[in-house]
Design a protein that fits this description.
Shape: globular
Structural class: alpha/beta
Helix content: 25-40%
Number of strands: 15
Strand content: 15-25%
Radius of gyration: 20 Å
Largest sheet: 7 strands, mixed
Order of helices and strands: HHHHEEHEEHEHEHEEHEEEHEHEEE
Low-confidence stretches: 1-19
Oligomer: single chain
Distance between the termini: 34 Å
């Protein structure tokens, strides 16, 4: 059934609201999931409120930019080996230069990289490296309903679709990332089932028990109450569903944590960094089972750095110049772990 054939009271779709991204396809796809019916009843209103033009001063600029992207259907879209859209030469040089100028107006680009018609968006993070570490040990994504919490501009969602995920619902309240996502979506295609909603995880109803896989990557240490975050993620999973958690960790035994004073690697909002053993204990305490560590990797200045597409300070500026094993504040330099666990 098409969305415009549904009774307006069923989905409560706001009319006349400024819009940055069209989500009607997502609302239609979510009707196939009865466990999400309660959220779907409120979701259009949540999205409309988040996309109100007063939420960000650059909102009208981003909307106009997106409306004026080149209208071209790429010859190919490769989401399995990266986010690679089209081939060099498909856009005339002057149109490619215009596209580059448009996309640079969405600076800073943090997650990626992206390749559009030969244009390389060299993002701050080599997110493809992290994806290679993550996807090697998780459950197959083929046919799965996926929630990606703190998804940024949707890079990982495209890669999940490249692994044949049925539907990816990403959450990120930062509107610049939503604009970047929509710019990429313009070329990838409107029917590809990866969506970035301008919402935080708080927008989800409690205990949905609906998603096959839930990703939370680079989020846990930003939470004042990490156990509450883990319990929220548990409630989103169906029985037997898998959590994929990527986070900063420190060396230590179970019970050991780092609580930075003021900043960690120049980030203000890092509240608690656990040891791996503490993290596994938290997962057990919250009700997860079969928790295991897939990977522990130090973050290097090759993986996170400033580029022409992210010109602000980055990891090389956040490490002690005399001792790269420490941050400028004197804490251990960033190390990240990938852990998976299941809802019983």
């Amino acid at each position: 059934m098409l969305l415009d054939q549904l009774p307006i009271t069923q989905l409560q779709i706001p009319r006349g609201k400024p819009n940055l991204v069209t989500y009607e396809l997502l609302f239609t796809l979510l009707q196939d999931y009865p466990l999400l019916a309660g959220w779907l009843e409120h979701l259009p209103g949540q999205v409309a409120a988040a996309l109100d033009e007063g939420k960000h001063g650059r909102f009208p600029q981003w909307r106009d930019l997106l409306n004026n992207l080149p209208q071209i259907r790429p010859s190919s879209v490769n989401l399995r080996d990266g986010v690679i859209v089209g081939q060099p030469g498909e856009l005339p040089p002057e149109q490619l230069a215009q596209l580059e100028d448009q996309l640079r107006q969405l600076h800073p680009w943090r997650k990626g990289p992206f390749h559009l018609f030969g244009l390389h968006i060299d993002t701050e993070w080599r997110s493809d490296w992290k994806w290679d570490r993550v996807q090697a040990g998780i459950a197959e994504l083929d046919g799965r309903l996926i929630l990606d919490v703190g998804c940024g501009n949707g890079y990982y969602g495209w890669r999940m679709v490249g692994q044949d995920a049925r539907l990816v619902v990403g959450l990120d309240p930062f509107l610049l990332y939503v604009a970047q996502y929509q710019a990429i979506r313009h070329f990838v295609g409107k029917d590809v089932p990866n969506f970035v909603l301008p919402l935080g995880v708080e927008a989800l109803p409690e205990n949905l028990a609906a998603f096959d896989t839930v990703f939370s990557m680079g989020v846990l240490y930003h939470r004042r109450n990490p156990l509450a975050h883990l319990q929220t993620l548990l409630g989103c999973l169906r029985p037997g569903g898998e959590l994929v958690l990527e986070t900063l960790i420190v060396d230590g035994a179970e019970g050991d944590v780092l609580v930075p004073q003021d900043r960690y690697a120049q980030m203000r909002n890092v509240h608690v960094i656990p040891s791996v053993h503490t993290l596994l204990g938290w997962l057990r305490q919250c009700g997860f089972v079969a928790a295991k560590v897939l990977d522990v990797t130090p973050t290097t200045v090759a993986e996170q750095r400033s580029t022409e597409w992210m010109t602000y300070n980055s990891l090389p500026d956040f490490l002690d110049k005399a001792d790269a094993s420490r941050t400028v504040e004197g804490y251990p330099a960033p190390v990240r772990a990938v852990v998976v666990a299941k809802r019983p």
